[in-house]
Amino acid sequence: MAKDLKITFLLDFYGDMLTDTQREAVEAYYNEDLSLAEIALDRDVTRQGVRDAIKRAEQQLLEMEERLGLARRFKEVQDALTVICDCAVSIEEQNSRMGDDPVIREHVAQILDCAEKIAVDQ
Amino acid sequence: MAKDLKITFLLDFYGDMLTDTQREAVEAYYNEDLSLAEIALDRDVTRQGVRDAIKRAEQQLLEMEERLGLARRFKEVQDALTVICDCAVSIEEQNSRMGDDPVIREHVAQILDCAEKIAVDQ
Fold first, then answer.
1. For residues B25 and A42, what is the distance between their CA atoms, to the nearest angstrom?
2. Looking at the structure, do residues A62 and A91 belong to the same domain, yes or no?
3. What is the pLDDT of residue B74?
4. Which of B61, B81, B91, B118 has the highest CB neighbour number within 10 Å of its CB?
5. Cβ within 8 Å, pair B115-A84
6. Residue B64 and residue B78 in one domain
């Protein structure tokens, strides 16, 4: 079973809709990078039991995303924020070359500050 | 039963997790602004039946938001985007006063374009 990086991202969005048992198993597997055998040992269940729990949880996460598409929407926001930050930096570079106007400099700083606040780890 | 504007916003995020019947009733009530009696007449069910379906759907939407908080996260993004756009406009105004540098003007336009693409109606 290959670890799917997309699952880590979906877990951030929809993880709280899983049962505690499911979420704990998926987090141990994806976020703490434990093996199925290690998770099974920790919980005193079979490796197959852990595998099934994770598979079910993954299916639920993928189904939630298929229905709601919120991770995709957030991804679009993050991509746009990257472009916005690049533009803001370019404005500041040009501003420096043009005499470093303080009004422009301050507004660029505010844009970068706002963009950073709403950025999500991917 | 007062119409809760928050529900319209949550419907946009989590509506696809409701059953078809629930979603249709909530959309008719909130988005098309029909009365309970009108919705009941359309579907040949009782007014009380429609009311119950909408109440259940509202509870589900509020519970999803309580668990996942994605509407709140999007709201934060939208608020930040408003500030980013205001700053971009201020930069352009200052740029006009300072001789209208084309590099700055183009990057401001790109910021506004990106922000508009990811803006959500609220």
1. 47
2. no
3. 87
4. B91
5. yes
6. no
Q: Convert the pLDDT of each residue in A55-112 to its tens digit.
A: 999 999 999 999 999 999 888 999 999 999 999 999 999 999 999 999 999 999 999 9
Same domain for B63 and B78: no
Domains identified in chain B, total number: 2
Per-residue pLDDT tens over the stretch B37-81? 999 999 899 999 999 999 999 999 999 999 999 999 888 999 999
Neighboring chain B residues of A74 at a CB cutoff of 8 Å = 73
Residue range of the domain that includes B109? 72-118
The answer to whether residues B19 and B64 belong to one domain is: yes
B79 shares a domain with B47: no
Would you tell me which residues 4-23 of chain B have a C-beta closer than 8 angstroms to some C-beta of chain A?
13-14, 16-17
Judge whether B25 and B57 are in contact, CB under 8 Å: yes
Chain A residues within 8 A of B88 when measuring between CB atoms? 107, 111
Note whether B17 and B36 are same-domain residues.
yes
Secondary structure (DSSP) of A34-102: --HHHHHHHHTS-HHHHHHHHHHHHHHHHHHHHHH-HHHHHHHHHHHHHHHHHHHHHHHHHHHHTT--H
| B80 contact residues in A (CB cutoff 8 A) | 114-115, 117-118
Judged by CB atoms closer than 8 Å, whether chains meet at B111 and A101 is answered as no
Report the alpha-carbon distance of residue A69 to residue A75 in Å, rounded. 10
> Do B63 and B18 sit in the same domain of this protein?
yes
pLDDT at A1: 59
Are residues A101 and A51 both part of a single domain? no
Q: What is the ipTM score, two decimals?
A: 0.76
In contact, B107 and A87? CB cutoff 8 Å: yes
Residue A5 has pLDDT above 90, yes or no: no
- Its pTM stands at 0.77
